[in-house]
Design goal:
alpha+beta, globular
């Protein structure tokens, strides 16, 4: 609760995930695509790759940026991986009900609860 993280992500969904649209890939294919992207990804190329590959509908507009994320504001598996990572690192693949994620933890700042 003491810090918020500036997060970017790439979401690779699959048929049957919470995205509720047909993506033409199963869970295993989504995982393989996610790991393939992660193998060649760098912090410098993250925004371009997010806008090209992410199944998050807003990625074309925001280049995968989720903004400042507080503890308790995302699904637990995503949150746990992010808050255990160091800044300026790539994290993934992270499985959530929406699919597989690659995240970039750009920065951290004190949260509104940091005084507690």
């Amino acid at each position: 609760l003491k810090q918020d993280l500036l997060i970017h992500h790439i979401l690779i969904g699959y048929d049957g995930s919470f995205l509720k649209r047909n993506l033409g890939r199963n869970k295993e294919e989504a995982y393989l695509l996610c790991t393939s992207i992660l193998d060649t990804l760098s912090v410098g190329s993250f925004k371009e790759v997010a806008s090209s590959y992410s199944d998050d509908g807003s990625a074309k507009r925001n280049f995968g940026e989720l903004g400042w994320v507080s503890w308790g504001s995302t699904v637990p598996s995503f949150e746990k991986a992010l808050f255990e990572a160091e800044t300026n690192t790539l994290v993934g693949p992270i499985e959530t009900p929406f699919g597989w994620h690659i995240a970039y933890v750009e920065g951290l700042q004190p949260s509104p609860f940091s005084f507690l």
